[in-house]
Amino acid sequence: MNDRIIFEDVSKFYGEILGVNRVNLSIPPGITSLVGPNGSGKTTLMNLMTGLVKPSRGRIQVLGLGTDDSENLFKIVGYSTQFDAFPRGLTGFQFIYSYLCLSGITSQEAERTAWEAIQRVNLVDAASRKVAAYSKGMRQRIRLAQALAHNPKVLVLDEPLNGLDPLARAEMIALFRASAAQGCYVIISSHILHEVDVISDQVILLSNGYVVAEGQIQTVRNEIQEHPTQILIRCDRPRELAAKLFESEYMIEASIHNDGRGLLLKTKDADRFYLALNQLALNGIQIESIAPADDDVLSVYEYLIGNEEVVR
Amino acid sequence: MNRLWWTQIKAVIRLELKKTFFAKRGLWIYVVAALPVLLFIAYAVAMSNQQHRTARIARQGDRPLSYQDLHAVKPGMTKQEVTAILGKPPLNFHWTERRPTGPGAFDEIQHEDYQYSDGQNDLYVGFTDGKVQSINIHEGYNLGEDAVMFAGVFQFFFLRLAIFFGCLGIFMNLFRGEILDRSLHFYFLSPVRREVLMAGKFLAGLLATCTIFVTSEILQTLAFLWHFNPQTRDVYLYHHHGLEHAAIYLGVTVLACIGYGAFFLVAGMLFRNPIIPAAAILIWEGINPFLPALLKQFSVIYYLKSLCPVEIPVSPGTPGLFALLISNADPVSAPLAIVGILVVACIALFVSSVQVRRMEINYTTE
Fold first, then answer.
1. Residues of A in contact with B188 (CB under 8 A)
2. Out of A14, A85, A103, whose CB is closest to B191?
3. Which of A108, A254, B287, B302 is the most buried (most CB within 10 A)?
4. Residue A16 to residue A250: CA distance in whole angstroms
5. Under 8 Å CB-to-CB from A31, ≥6 apart: which residues?
């Protein structure tokens, strides 16, 4: 398929050390987040996708291109790495400009495109300063500018929000969303799960080099059978509601919310529980809202991987 | 060549040249390249002082002398006969030697030295008891000796050490330096074929080394010619093949940069520690005279020695191994040497191109 990023039985070993093992993925357009603790294989997966490392086994195709075809691959791929080193002595502008010149475009076009990219990451004022003198956040932004500069179809961003202040994070997230809305493939790795939750169309959960789960959050959550689904119902009489709901065979556990105006339920079959809820006569109990409480990335991550290194 | 590739190569060269020429860790290369220039400047200064002194002695003489006059003195002549031919000596020294002939007995022997000059060459005449005992003519210009001296510095210092280590410093760092700086991914993330990147880096290294060492070679030649007077300089350049030799030395310098550059480019990709390939290549080049004919051909110095215009004579007392290093027992013709060195470089570049395609960014293992 030429409209997907495909991993076919891909493994990568660094000598004796496992990078990733038996990865099979088909990544569609939109924002896809790679989630996992340190050493789980997120960066290896990104490096494999961009040809910076070669798979020990298996095959990778990025929109129909092999990862060893760097000449064509990087016309459609932009990669913002975690490597915090830059060619010596370059200013922010020169860094982007040189990168664009390498693609073979004219110097006028490279100059114009470089300024556009620098504007997109709000770094115009610092563009004439040496990158070596940049703060961590500025270096992050200039790397993003490099990845974005040639308007790639596939954006691979390794921890792109690290070191950014809240305002810059919001700007960058908006930028990623805009790219995804235009049909781009935005692949993001992040430790910050609530941000992943907010921005991702789909997630890939990694642990110890293996893909533990992939897909949309809700779909992944529904597949985790051993952890009952949690639902929060906001209402005026939670005790009465709990008593009524225990008549349903699908409810396992219920607890009154701390503020006394809600009920936290656990059910093994959310869909049937919702159907049963509709059929219950609730005797005038005012229900304000019903919402799943654990179909976010954080919960899925905790269920599948554990709570190590989770950043809420 | 694809036009896009050429544009990309030029972009790589522009980026690399700045790093190569102004890298702090490459400053020693300028020092190595400057050393033979300083040597020839020192030689020229010493020779100029000598010439000034010789000219002053000539001016102090009774009359102007010619080179033939200096050769007119023969052993056994008396002081009067010498003075009759050359006039009163501008400089003379005398001393008395007390030679023991028995217990408490000595013979007193009178020694006297006269020094004359024709303005360029010095004549030292030694008298013992009033008769000419020794004659020594010190020639101001000896183009043959000077050419051999230049060839010796070129072959044994400039080629084998300065260019060798200069190329090591520049070409091995083209990829290895970027891996150590953790900045190689900048290139690997751009839409450039790895082979094109390698070609760009090699040409940038070649441009840098050629600029540094060709400049050094030109300055060496200028410093070498500095102490000649205009007439001698013309004789050396136009009648003694000086100009031709200078052009050949420049060509050999460029070929040395190509050959060693290609070797060290591939070595920088294959080895993490530059000391190992440097030592290996240095030994390989050093033992070249002892290698079988087939293996000799996979060496840079084998071809470069064949191209050098002045053969360094082996003195009869030179130890065998050293004599073998100096002499070129099995030279090849100039066209074959040029083709040979280019073929060796192409083989090394082909290996580099295979290696660069296999390279991975894995800084943590470096």
1. 51-52, 70
2. A103
3. B302
4. 48
5. A176, A177, A180, A186, A188, A199, A200, A201, A202
DSSP B246-310: HHHHHHHHHHHHHHHHHHHHHHHHH-S-THHHHHHHHHHHHTGGGS-HHHHTT-HHHHHHHH-SS
Token digits for B157?
């210092």
* Cβ neighbours, 10 Å, residue A207: 19
Tell me how far apart the alpha carbons of residues B250 and B362 are, in angstroms, rounded to a whole number: 40
Contact B361 A75 (CB under 8 A): no
> Which residue carries 């200078």 as its tokens?
B246
pTM: 0.81
Identify the CATH assignment for A229-293 out of 3.40.50.2300, 3.30.70.100, 3.100.10.20, 3.30.70.1620. 3.30.70.100
Q: Which of B137, B139, B136, B128 is nearest to B77 (CA)?
A: B128
Provide the ipTM. Answer: 0.80
| Size of chain B in residues | 366
Q: Do A51 and B188 touch (CB under 8 A)?
A: yes
Paired tokens of A199:
């921005």
Identify the residue among A68, A70, A81, A144 best suited for mutation to test binding to B, counting B beta carbons within 10 A and taking the highest. A70
A199 to chain B, closest Cα gap in Å? 25
Of A52, A54, A98, nearest to B185 by CB-CB distance is A52
Q: Quick one: A5-222 is in which CATH superfamily?
A: P-loop containing nucleotide triphosphate hydrolases (3.40.50.300)
Tell me which residue in B11, B23, B183 faces A86 most closely, judged by beta carbons: B183
Cβ-defined contact of B360 to A98 (cutoff 8 Å): no
Instruction: Give tens-digit pLDDT for A37-78.
Output: 888 899 999 999 999 999 999 999 999 999 999 999 999 999
Residue A22 has pLDDT above 50, yes or no: yes
User: What confidence tens digit (pLDDT) does each residue in B265-281 have?
Assistant: 999 888 878 788 888 88
The rounded distance, in Å, linking the Cα atoms of A229 and A297 is: 14
- Interface with B, mutate which of A71, A76, A82, A86 (most B CBs under 10 A): A71
Written out in words, the top-level CATH class of the domain with range B59-138 is alpha beta
Would you tell me how many other CB atoms lie within 10 Å of the CB of residue B247? 13
Q: Measured between alpha carbons, how far is B263 from B279 in angstroms, rounded to an integer?
A: 13
Contact A54 B192 (CB under 8 A): no
3 state DSSP class of A28? coil
Residues from chain A that touch B183, judged by Cβ atoms under 8 A, are 83, 85-88
Extents of the domains making up chain B: 3-49+142-365, 59-138
pLDDT in tens, B6-33: 999 999 999 998 888 887 888 999 999 9
**Cβ contact (<8 Å) for B192 and A87?**
no
Contact B23 A88 (CB under 8 A): yes
* Residues A163-204 pLDDT 10s: 888 888 888 889 999 999 999 999 999 877 777 777 888 989
